[in-house]
Write a structure and sequence with these properties.
Radius of gyration: 15 Å
Shape: elongated
Oligomer: single chain
Number of strands: 3
CATH class: Alpha Beta
Order of helices and strands: EHHEEH
Number of helices: 3
CATH topology: Alpha-Beta Plaits
Length: 90
């Protein structure tokens, strides 16, 4: 029986440490929203959460989890983060 299912992810876990920034989290959310079978994506960047609603007839829960993790890995591999030290601002 097909229907919809919602699954929530922790973006701070998907994008650990220095890889978690609003831009990378947004890239993950955009990538997930483009998946065939995903009906709704809600990103709360302030709290680091991603809610994905999908059509279970077109995309299984396991496929959603695998795809979200793959997209997060692609984002962390494709973006180089830099740290800058600012001095003289006090």
């Amino acid at each position: 029986m097909a229907g919809t299912h919602s699954h929530e992810f922790d973006l701070t876990t998907l994008l650990p440490g220095p890889h978690y920034c609003a831009a990378c989290a947004e890239r993950v959310c955009t990538g997930v929203s483009a998946l065939d079978g995903v009906t709704d994506v809600t990103c709360d960047l302030a709290h680091g959460s991603l809610a994905v609603e999908h059509d279970t007839g077109r995309l299984s829960r396991a496929d959603v989890e695998t795809s979200v993790r793959r997209i997060a890995l692609e984002v962390t591999d494709s973006v180089a983060h830099a740290a800058y030290r600012l001095t003289g601002l006090d």
